[in-house]
From TrEMBL:
It is a multi-pass membrane protein. The lineage of its organism: Bacteria, Pseudomonadati, Pseudomonadota, Gammaproteobacteria, Cellvibrionales. This is DoxX family membrane protein. The chain crosses the membrane at residues 21-40, 60-86, 98-121. The keyword Methyltransferase does not apply. GO terms for cellular component: membrane. Its main location: membrane.
Length: 130
């Protein structure tokens, strides 16, 4: 049996794709729920953004980014960049919790790790510029 007759998809590849989809679905659900809550003006979200002190426009922009990010996590062509951008956004969110408004940064850190992992698992989808 020569190597060219081996199947192209190894169990590790299937596992990686499955893990990526599970993480993408978890993150998409979390970002979609949070983004919709921000856009609908849920009182808790309004209060959080009042504490941040930048203005409610920032809540709306954040909500749009979260909803768009949730949807683009599910598209193969945008999954890597979406994961990376959402991970960066959660890094900022963790910093805001730590240094501005207080509260636990753990949810933001968990989402950052999930979306960074998604970006890493799908790194082959980044556009090559060379």
């Amino acid at each position: 049996m020569n190597i060219s007759s081996l199947p192209e998809q190894s169990p590790t590849g299937r596992f990686t794709r499955g893990l990526s989809w599970v993480l993408r679905l978890i993150a998409a659900a979390a970002f979609l729920a949070a983004g919709i809550a921000k856009l609908m003006g849920v009182p808790m979200m309004v209060g959080v953004f009042d504490q941040i002190g930048v203005g409610q426009w920032f809540r709306l922009v954040t909500g749009v980014i979260e909803v768009v990010g949730a949807l683009t996590l599910l598209l193969p062509i945008t999954v890597a960049i979406s994961g990376a951008l959402l991970a960066a956004m959660m890094l900022v969110a963790a910093g805001i919790h730590l240094f501005v408004i207080g509260g636990s940064p753990v949810p933001a850190i968990v989402l950052m790790l999930i979306t960074a992992t998604v970006a890493w698992l799908n790194r082959q989808h980044f556009i090559r510029l060379d």
